[in-house]
Amino acid sequence: MKRPLLLLLHLMLESQALRYSNSYYYQDLSPDGTGNGEIYFSGVRLHVESPQTLVSAVQGGNVTLPCVYRYEPEVSAPRKTRVKWFWQPNTGETKEMHVIVAFGSRHRSYGDFRGRVRLRRSAPGDASLVINPLLSDDTGRYRCEIIDGLEDESITVELQFRGIVFPYYSPMGRYQFNFQEAKGACEEQGACLATFEQLFAAWEEEKFDWCNAGWLADGTAQYPVSVPRDACGGTDLAPGVRSYGVRHKSIDRFDAFCFTSSIKGEVYFLQHQLKLNFSEAVEECAQDGAQIAKVGQLYAGWRFAGLDQCDAGWLADGSVRYPITKPRANCGPPEPGVRSFGFLPKHLKYGVYCHKVRW
């Protein structure tokens, strides 16, 4: 009877060097088998991938951030995996924030994402994140993490908005905003503070040229120059986005660069027999079942809906502007754009641009 007992004892001692977790086998590499040494993976391998690591979307719409996982070699039975999505915003924030955690059929979403996010799960291994609707602050870097036992793999997906950057300044004049005031001013006009990436893309792709520095979402003050000139830093500097660096958010004063991505509804020039002062303009839009349009809505209508109207009209902030898609005589400069007369006395008579929600 001693030999079977010795054999059983030997097998038990050998098994102490192996650990088992969720069908994965890990072997202890410590020489004494105490379980304190390095471990290596000796089962199937977990892979996490994304076919698209940069996703563009429109504010107010929905988006799917792709994330899929698989095993190598392929497994025959479903496995118990935990899915986590994290978000790092484009505001200079370095800390990741939870978006959603899912385990089997159970899930939990967090913060402002609560009620707006879910996992697509269109096929086995599909952990793609669906966000609906997209809010103005949702851009940034998202990380999809898959956890299976002691295995942990992740990928990142960058979310950016398709849209337009426009300069904005206070009715009190140039360089009046501190950082929070600039942020609030953009939001009041149906937009948000632009990121550096958005401003750079506008300069690079659209030759955006503006010779007044404005706040960006990361707390820097910058301005884009496509045609170097004396009034914009001199002619000896190459075209580019000029930066004043990170500024004091309470003390320093600049304009703002705002970004708008979409428009829920329609912006239109109200056909009216008479010109209107500002108060009359607000009232006439209301009588038409609409509201007087914001600056960001006018820019969005121009960019996304091709709004083209050679008539100056009041907007909600008290400015007078008009959008031109097809430049022509007596309609301003030879380039497309939103023309501005600035902030005028509110008793003067102009047309009005209204915004009506359609969905």
UniProtKB/TrEMBL annotation:
<feature type="domain" description="Link">
    <location>
        <begin position="164"/>
        <end position="260"/>
    </location>
</feature>
<dbReference type="Pfam" id="PF07686">
    <property type="entry name" value="V-set"/>
</dbReference>
<keyword id="KW-0373">Hyaluronic acid</keyword>
<keyword id="KW-0272">Extracellular matrix</keyword>
<dbReference type="GO" id="GO:0007155">
    <property type="term" value="P:cell adhesion"/>
</dbReference>
<keyword id="KW-0393">Immunoglobulin domain</keyword>
<protein>
    <recommendedName>
        <fullName>Hyaluronan and proteoglycan link protein 3</fullName>
    </recommendedName>
</protein>
<dbReference type="GO" id="GO:0005615">
    <property type="term" value="C:extracellular space"/>
</dbReference>
<dbReference type="GO" id="GO:0005540">
    <property type="term" value="F:hyaluronic acid binding"/>
</dbReference>
<feature type="signal peptide">
    <location>
        <begin position="1"/>
        <end position="17"/>
    </location>
</feature>
<dbReference type="GO" id="GO:0007417">
    <property type="term" value="P:central nervous system development"/>
</dbReference>
<dbReference type="GO" id="GO:0045202">
    <property type="term" value="C:synapse"/>
</dbReference>
<feature type="domain" description="Ig-like">
    <location>
        <begin position="51"/>
        <end position="156"/>
    </location>
</feature>
<dbReference type="GO" id="GO:0010001">
    <property type="term" value="P:glial cell differentiation"/>
</dbReference>
<dbReference type="Pfam" id="PF00193">
    <property type="entry name" value="Xlink"/>
</dbReference>
<dbReference type="InterPro" id="IPR016187">
    <property type="entry name" value="CTDL_fold"/>
</dbReference>
<keyword id="KW-0732">Signal</keyword>
<dbReference type="GO" id="GO:0072534">
    <property type="term" value="C:perineuronal net"/>
</dbReference>
<feature type="domain" description="Link">
    <location>
        <begin position="265"/>
        <end position="356"/>
    </location>
</feature>
<dbReference type="GO" id="GO:0001501">
    <property type="term" value="P:skeletal system development"/>
</dbReference>
<dbReference type="InterPro" id="IPR007110">
    <property type="entry name" value="Ig-like_dom"/>
</dbReference>
<feature type="disulfide bond">
    <location>
        <begin position="211"/>
        <end position="232"/>
    </location>
</feature>
<keyword id="KW-0964">Secreted</keyword>
<comment type="similarity">
    <text>Belongs to the HAPLN family.</text>
</comment>
<dbReference type="InterPro" id="IPR050691">
    <property type="entry name" value="Hyaluronan_bind_Proteoglycan"/>
</dbReference>
<feature type="disulfide bond">
    <location>
        <begin position="285"/>
        <end position="354"/>
    </location>
</feature>
<feature type="disulfide bond">
    <location>
        <begin position="310"/>
        <end position="331"/>
    </location>
</feature>
<dbReference type="InterPro" id="IPR000538">
    <property type="entry name" value="Link_dom"/>
</dbReference>
<dbReference type="InterPro" id="IPR003599">
    <property type="entry name" value="Ig_sub"/>
</dbReference>
<dbReference type="InterPro" id="IPR013783">
    <property type="entry name" value="Ig-like_fold"/>
</dbReference>
<dbReference type="GO" id="GO:0002052">
    <property type="term" value="P:positive regulation of neuroblast proliferation"/>
</dbReference>
<dbReference type="InterPro" id="IPR013106">
    <property type="entry name" value="Ig_V-set"/>
</dbReference>
<keyword id="KW-1015">Disulfide bond</keyword>
<keyword id="KW-0677">Repeat</keyword>
<dbReference type="InterPro" id="IPR036179">
    <property type="entry name" value="Ig-like_dom_sf"/>
</dbReference>
<dbReference type="InterPro" id="IPR016186">
    <property type="entry name" value="C-type_lectin-like/link_sf"/>
</dbReference>
